[in-house]
Design a protein that fits this description.
2 domains, C8orf32 fold, 281 residues, 29% helix, alpha+beta, 5-stranded antiparallel β-sheet, disordered N terminus
Length: 281
């Protein structure tokens, strides 16, 4: 009887010990401190890149697309460079952390880029968000890293995310492509602050998209909102030049010098399409 009780205590102790090990393993993904530190200073913002002098815009009215040129920058070593060493769009931030992982990880890991729909800001049609997946081959565990929101954990930690496709590399990184293109009326998120994202888009006018009908638009979207609000518009509306903004909303998100810089940049973009326009503030 005593031997049986002793064996039961041993078994119970082993079960408890294993459960504690399992709990500890589940509570912290591998290299947690190192990976979190690699993205600690990163900030989701395409604003610093967008206002650079070498960045330009072209509109293809026939194909109904628009392209921002020289938005991505690569160093002499071929690696993607973040503005100020910390600012970038989601794919740029993911690529930055991807490179950092090569010096952090030691073991049988597979890292992939994963396209997702993020529940707070990137769940609407035609919008997508880039994160990383980390697969540990020896334990068959999967982990996920979202550099834009400084998140790292298991699938359960990414509640609400809709996982789309995974890929081992990004074509614009592999081919050193500096431009990015979108369909007309499709937005490019360029600034994330607290619970608000600002997107930049080239919009049509009642379906018309030509040299007399195009609007460069900054749109403010609050987290979990399905519809955003235009806060700055510059362009041509049925042949007439248009420029306006929501002062209070813009002022709550950007500093005066930032407002002046982005407004003048939008004017520069419009002048590239119609050189007769020459406004500055």
């Amino acid at each position: 009887m005593k031997k049986t009780l002793f064996n039961l205590f041993i078994i119970a102790g082993l079960i408890f010990f294993k459960s504690q090990i399992g709990f500890a393993a589940a509570s912290e993904p591998p290299y947690y401190a190192e990976i979190m530190n690699s993205m600690r200073n990163l900030e989701y913002s395409g604003f610093p890149a967008l206002i650079k002098p070498e960045v330009s815009l072209s509109l293809n009215f026939k194909e109904r697309t628009w392209t921002v040129h020289n938005i991505h920058k690569f160093g002499e070593d071929g690696l993607l460079m973040l503005e100020g060493g910390r600012y970038g769009l989601c794919s740029e931030l993911a690529a930055y952390v991807y490179t950092k992982l090569k010096t952090i990880l030691n073991g049988p890991y597979i890292v992939n880029y994963v396209m997702v729909k993020e529940p707070g800001f990137f769940m609407v049609d035609e919008s997508a968000h880039m994160i990383l997946s980390l697969f540990k081959q020896d334990t068959m565990e999967a982990f996920y890293i979202d550099p834009s929101f400084h998140k790292y954990g298991r699938r359960a930690d990414f509640e609400g995310y809709l996982f789309l496709d995974a890929q081992p590399r990004l074509s614009f990184i592999e081919n050193k492509i500096t431009d990015i293109s979108f369909k007309v009326d499709q937005a490019m998120p360029i600034f994330l602050k607290n619970d608000i994202v600002i997107s930049f888009s080239v919009a049509s006018v009642d379906g018309l998209f030509d040299s007399d009908n195009f609007l460069l638009t900054l749109t403010r979207t609050v987290k979990n909102a399905k519809v955003g609000q235009d806060i700055m518009v510059v362009g041509k509306y049925r042949g007439k030049f248009q420029a306006w903004d929501e002062h209070a909303l813009v002022g709550a998100l950007l500093q005066p010098e930032e407002i002046r810089a982005i407004y003048n940049k939008l004017l520069f973009f419009v002048e590239q399409v119609d050189p007769s326009i020459n406004y500055k503030i």
